[in-house]
Sequence to fold (106 residues):
Amino acid sequence: MIKQIIEVIRVNKTIKLNQKKSDHNVYSRKIGRMGNSLGVSFPKLLAEKLDISQGDEIEFVENDGEIILRKARQIELPKNIRLEVLEAFYDVFEEDRAIFDDLKDR
Fold:
């Protein structure tokens, strides 16, 4: 278990938690409006560490109230597999997911 010292600071009638002595870097950004959506910018150092740049795809992974951001993995299909066949298989799998889940539990 990671030992953390948490310091509570009262700022403008809100409470801000600052973590100290952590095994990982913590970056803070405010969420802003981007058209009809919400967006957040990446700190330059973090973007460099993740090797991401404009146009790259990232994944949001929800994990017990936390969100993990990571660079989307790009895979290269073997030459004998056509993308449209793989997409059709995925669509069928998603449509019949309940059937597969039922078979898995038997």
Observations:
- The beta strands are 5-11, 14-20, 32-34, 37-39, 58-63, 66-71.
- Residues 1-13 have pLDDT under 50 and may be disordered.
